[in-house]
Amino acid sequence: LQLVESGGGLVQPGGSLRLSCATSGSTLEEYATGWHRQAPGKEREAVACISSSGRSTNYADSVRGRFTMSRDTAKHTVYLQMNSLKPEDTAVYYCTFRGLRTYWGQGTQVTVSS
Fold first, then answer.
1. Beta strand 67-72 with 77-82: parallel, antiparallel or unpaired?
2. What's the rounded Cα separation, in Å, for the pair 53 and 20?
3. Higher pLDDT, 104 or 29
């Protein structure tokens, strides 16, 4: 299973970005999907996740109310809409698909800076 991420970049504080993670030919309902991030010098942390059924979405306290994770099963793609970005959101963001094993995307850099 290959995961292809896109949408990272440089944005000013208070700005927005939308990350995408696409996979070819896989049924999203087979996987719990999520986003993680890793900032320089820090451990990787979970940001958001959607259950395989799609009925449950959870967020880290640090992003709740600002980030929204969604998925499009027809496009085999998951998204992370990030609003009101802060400098502390700066990190490499990874998507994950968790089934019998966990698959990771290659990561996309998000930098929040003025």
1. antiparallel
2. 19
3. 104
